[in-house]
Design a protein that fits this description.
Layout lengths: L3 E5 L6 H12 L4 E11 L2 E9 L4 E6 L7 E2 L2 E3 L1 H11 L8 E7 L7 H11 L5 E5 L5 H7 L5 E4 L8 H8 L3
Parallel strand pairs: 1-8, 1-9, 2-7, 7-8
Antiparallel strand pairs: 2-3, 3-4, 4-6, 5-6
Helix pairs in contact: 1-5, 2-3
C-alpha cells in the first residue's frame, strides 16, 4: 500500500480546507504536521502563517519581512519555517499520520524543511501532503515521487475529498 497521498490544485481551490477537515475528523492526537493560512488586512493578503495541530502558530512569510528569500511580494522567514519543522515535522513516536500543507516555494527556502520532508517520505508513516501545482527542485521531486498517489482538487470535488482522504487512510 502506498503511504503518500499528494493533493494539488490551483491556488485558492480548497487544498488547505481539505487538510483541515481531515484533521478535524481524525482529532488532534497522534497527528503530525501543519496547515497554512492567509492573513488578510483590508481585504488584501498580507502574509501566511503556519498552524500546527496542537495550536502553535508562526508567520512564515509577510510583505514586510526583510531578507533575500522572497516569493512574489512576500519575504520568507526561513527561521520561522525552521522552527515549524522542529515543532511539527520531527516524527514523534506516536504519530499515526502526517498532514502537511504544503510543499511550496516558501517552505522550500528552508533546508531543514526539505531534509525533514525527505526523512518523512522515506518512512512508513502515512502522509497526506498538499503540493504546489507547479515548481521545480524539491516541489518537482515530491510531485514525481514514485508510488505516491496524486489527486487534484477542483471546485467540483473539494467537498467530497475529505471523506475520500479518510477512506484512503483507512479511517
Amino acid at each position: 500500500m502506498t503511504t503518500v497521498l499528494l493533493i494539488t490544485g490551483r491556488p485558492g481551490v480548497g487544498k488547505t480546507t481539505v487538510i483541515r477537515r481531515v484533521a478535524e475528523a481524525l482529532g488532534r492526537e497522534r497527528l503530525g504536521g501543519f496547515y497554512t493560512e492567509e492573513v488578510r488586512e483590508h481585504g488584501r493578503r498580507r502574509s501566511f502563517r503556519a498552524v500546527t495541530f496542537d495550536g502553535w502558530t508562526r508567520s512564515i512569510a509577510d510583505v514586510d519581512h526583510p531578507g533575500p528569500e522572497r516569493v512574489s511580494r512576500y519575504g520568507v522567514d526561513v527561521a520561522a519555517i525552521d522552527a515549524l519543522v522542529e515543532r511539527s515535522l520531527a516524527a514523534p513516536a506516536d504519530a499515526e499520520v502526517f498532514l502537511i500543507d504544503e510543499v511550496g516555494k516558501m517552505e522550500c527556502h528552508s533546508a531543514a524543511f526539505v531534509s525533514a520532508m525527505r526523512r518523512l517520505l522515506d518512512s512508513s508513516i502515512p502522509l497526506v501532503i498538499t503540493v504546489a501545482e507547479r515548481g521545480g527542485g524539491f516541489i518537482g521531486e515530491v510531485r514525481g515521487l514514485r508510488g505516491a498517489e496524486l489527486w487534484t482538487v477542483t471546485r467540483g470535488n473539494r467537498d467530497a475529498l475529505p471523506r475520500r482522504v479518510l477512506e484512503w487512510l483507512g479511517r
